[in-house]
Amino acid sequence: MSSILSTPVPAQRDSSVTRNVRTALMVWRRDLIRLRRNYVRIVFGLAQPLGFLVVFSIGLAPIVGSKSLPGHASYRVFIFPGILAMSIISSALISTVSIVWDREFGFMREMLVAPVSRAALIAGKTLGGGSIAITQGLILLVLAPAVGVHLTVARVAALLAALIFTAFAVTGLGIVLANSVNRIQTQQTVMTLALQPLIFTSGALFPVKNLPGWLAVVCSLNPVTYGVDLARRVLLGSSFAVSIGSWTVPLWFDIVVMAAFGALMLTIATWRLGRTD
Question: What is the pLDDT of residues 141-168, one digit of tens each?
């Protein structure tokens, strides 16, 4: 009897799937805790798109004019979905700066030597950055009635899906960029250089169809253009769909482009993380 009681019970090891899921959720939770403790980032993250909304809706409205917009809509109604998308893009990119911090302070090295897959770490970082970006975008949504955008339950649900596509795709891009630099000072410069062309060639602030031919081509090659188009169409209707030449981009094309771009970025990010020193 005593020999039976003294026999050690073998420890049960988690399966690799359980371990990877737990790791992804841990990294995700860590990013959310970091955001909660940094309320200044939340305030400034909301202040920038609000400033864009006020300044551009006042300063550019007379220049753009309602006659160039579908249904002669007001300019502030037109740019509101674009401002939401801009908030998502900037927040998603900035959230990935934490990867460089983790590398400089050694936390990333500890995660890389753990018995978990690189894909689990990337999934956790993507969930964290995407959740932060979506939260800030939804907070801005309370301003919709003030600018003249009518909300319904169906529109809010469709907008949430559109923002999720954009947030996770851009977070994947941010992770790729973060894995390409080793210093936080360099990362800030890289993010700024990436953020400006992504935003200003996405059609967030002006109709793409009214641009010169070469600039319209640049906008059509920007994958974020289709994320902005998704947000604008679900909030304002199909008459606001982006056009490439005489071709009106269908909704399914927006979804395919964002999904493919996000999958490509996450694949590259996983490959790059496995080679991070």
Answer: 888 888 888 888 888 888 888 888 888 8
Residue 201 has pLDDT above 80, yes or no: yes
DSSP helix/strand/coil, 117: coil
CB 140 within 8 A of CB 48: no
Contacts of 108 (CB under 8 A, 6+ apart): 99, 102, 276
CA distances from 181 to 126, 170, 191, 244 (A): 18, 17, 11, 35
Q: Could you tell me the pTM of the whole model?
A: 0.79
Q: Tokens 């409205």 map to which residue? A: 61
pLDDT mean across residues, the chain: 77
String of DSSP letters for 158-210: HHHHHHHHHHHHHHHHHHHHHTT-S-HHHHHHHHHHHHHHHHHTTTSSS-GGG
Nearest to 144 by CA among 229, 204, 226, 79: 79
Residue 184 burial by CB count (10 A; 0-12/13-18/19+): exposed, middle or buried? middle
Structure tokens given for 161: 């899906």
Helix axes 39-59, 75-95, angle to 10 degrees: 150
